[in-house]
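Researcher: Go.
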Amino acid sequence: MHDGICYGNGSYFWDNHVNAVTEAISCVIPGTNLTTGQWVRVADPDDPVDCNSNSDSDPFHCTNVTSPANLSLYLAQSLPAAQEGWYKCCLPTDCSHPNTYIIFANIFKYAEIESFTVAGLSSDMTVYPQEYKLNCTKIGHTSYSISMSIGSTALVNYIGCYDQFAICPGTVLVSSTNTIRYTVDITWDGMNVSSGSIRQSTTGDQMYQCVLDNIGGADRIRTLTIKVPATAPSSLTEINKTATTITVSWTALDSSDADGYVINVTSDTDTVQTVQVEGSSNNTITVNGLRVLTTYSITVRAYQQLLGPASSTISVQTSPVINSINWTLASSITQLNNTQYRIDCLTTTDIDPSTDVYWLVNGVMKNNSNYSSIDVLTYNNTLLVYPDPLGESVNVTCIAMIGGVNYNQSVILHAPSGPPNNVRGFILNANSIKVNWTNSSEINGYVIEYTTGGVTRNVVSTSEDELVLPNLSPMSTYTISVYSYIDLPSVNSTVTVLKFDVPSPVTSFSVSNVSTTGITVSWTIPSSDNYVTYYTISYTPSCPQLSSLNETVSVAPHQSTTTYSYTLIGLYSGMNYTITVRAGNVLGGSDPSFINENTLPIVPTGIPAGYLFLLQPVNNLTWNEVNCSQRNGLVIGYTVIISNSSITYNLTSTERYIILNDLVFGTEADDDISMQVCEPYGIHKTKLSEENEGVYDECQTSPEDVYEHSSIRPTPIECGLPGATLNGGRWIGPSGAIPCGIGYIQNVQCTTGSGANLSVFINPANGFLRAPGDGWYKCCLPTDCSDPNANIIFANIFRYAQIESFTVADLPSDMTVYPQEYKLNCIKIGHNRYGISKSIGSTALASYTNCFDGSNSCSGTVLDSITNTLRYTVTITWDGMTVSSGSISQSTTGDQMYQYILDNLSGGDDRTRYLTIKVPATAPSSLTEVNKTATTITVIWTALDSSDADGYVVNVTSDTDTVQTVQVEGTSNNTITLNGLRGGTTYNITVRAYQQLLGPASTISVQTLPGI
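Model: Structure:
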């Protein structure tokens, strides 16, 4: 108590106001009796105030009252600066007693800072920026200066204050004690403290100072700390979100560094929410009431008395009401208009799916009755739809409502714009049909439905544009429908009907374009329900020495034309041919269709073979019948010319004899008639050797095989360069340069002609080509062969017979057809007697001995009868392990090496040709499944080197049925996805490399995922 006024514990008292006993500071404890109470300077607790005496070290006196306990303190002299400060009053006992009561008072000289406090700190940390006040209260002497600062930055500074004149803008609280409050308004934006125009950046706790400058006395300083987190919460992360909520978390600060947190949510530049979370350990919050599919920026700050710095901002977009809509095939696509499609619409759990979700299917509303919870955030709403009708797309829309707003997503199940085109069936073998088609639009696969007798036998699907239907019944008619599908099936294609039988006979069989050596035949192909892959044309000449010939022509099934024509060539002139045509497929040939036609005649070459006989006494002149196979046609008559120097007779006969009656030549005796007829009158028959077969007079290409017996012995080979002049040109053969000129004795010689012309021929004195001259010749014109600018023509001149070529034909480009078939064609030219064989390794595929071209005893195909050029063909079947021809088979691996040997029977050198067909030696390794769904399987294998493969064939079977066969071109393309499979089905997958033929296989088994 002072001057009758009660003051609180810790009050300040100016020395000028406590310097008389009447102005003493009294401390009283009601209801107690004073015993050993005392005043003690806090700075010197062991030296209590002596109430009865005073000194510079103890300038106070005190009075006391026993009851109630009262102890009053006043200055008995001036207050030295060293004795300023805090004093405590202990009642009713001394200060050492633990139960004594203690009251504090500050006694000072000049002026003092009574308090330095902060005011206006808000408990609502969501208001930002934050504002508060610093209050520094001065008491005592009226003359002073006062300032407040943060760090080295002064916020206010008042100099030369004099309270009587209110020079400084303080607020008077108690005029009697000159108690005045000075206030500074502070704004805190999280990084800067500002007051008016003064601004100071700071981090962490804010340290303020109030300084009071006593003019002539000690300065007074007070500090004030406002707690502010120094760091932002780290690892601000979205941990969950829905259409209207976002949940975030962060790393909590220690309790000494934070009292709680403030989360700020903005969209664009607008603050949407600011949420205060109390407690330093509460580091998770869910922000509610947000907008659907909106991006928000979120920050978090810790706070104590003020907010600390902001964390890194994260952006989070609220989820859509509808997360996604998808469809899956719920049943097999082969069920066509009964196929089920499941639509899954994933929605937020912010809604009630039973009332807030509905569907539109092609504009027709459907209720949402089938839904389930996937997790705490998501409902799965499900709808089953069907393709009704076929060929129309289905648009399904899922609609969800939240806050009175409808949200929707749609999915379209696409159907093809039309069905497949050109659906055709092809008979593969005795119990299989291949169906193929074309499609004009983008599709994902096909469904093939085929029936017989009104009963649907099977429905299958494939992603290829062809399919093999196995296990069929011969002699049945199949109706085949093909549907394409993208997501939904199309309407069915134009139905194709296939009779599973041999073809019907061809009709309208006719002849046109008849020549001396050819006949063109035409016919109408069988109806489209009969599958035709080839026609066999047989033609039998009326010549008894000639055999019937067969030619087989492969054709594309179901050609667009209705007629087919074929020209028979290499026929004999003037010959009657019986021509037969059969249509065929793998099941066999049709009944034959016949026609007869004659080739145009020409004059026969040569003379009748054999000796003439004049039979007496009837003068019957006879000769051997002409072999029509050795002439250019069937001889139908003979002309006999008999003459001497005075008369000539021309007689004709259709028989092999003529009666020479009534001929008048002279008076020769009867026994001289034979000689007179046979010699003087020019009736001669030169015996033909088997080597004399005619003379060629035609241009031949380079290089060319030239048969010496019938070509260059009577008639040279001539090479010429038009418009040039010979300047050292030359023929060069196996034994070197061929001499040109007269008088040379070499076996092969040459002559020159006008311009640049060189002819090579066999020396007539030697008769035949000798062995050293057998082989390749080249003619260099107009200069010799050393001149780089010389023109060079090659020819092969050979003895006996030679192999003109050894080639392979009909190698498949479509490697999906298996087993594979091709032909080996070996063409022989020259001498008409020989032996011939074809083999692979040591296994003979065909062997003919003692062949004689005159009667075609070895069944070759005559290509040119003049040069005795015949083709011998072997048909090969390759099943991946074994080469077979008829009943002969040979296992082999890798490249197939064939050999053709021609045996010259008359002592000449044998001829050998080789042919290699490229086949991969090994199967692709490491065939592995890398992915699969209910309808697809993706496999990969180790690619072979480009020298070992041109591509691959992947075959997919289920049980024993081939589902797909896919050809992959390129040796490096070692991955494929097989589409259009059935869910939950086990497939055997093989891969083979191919070059000219398929190599060995690698196989794995893979089961597709279940459909649902």
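Model: The radius of gyration is 61 Å.
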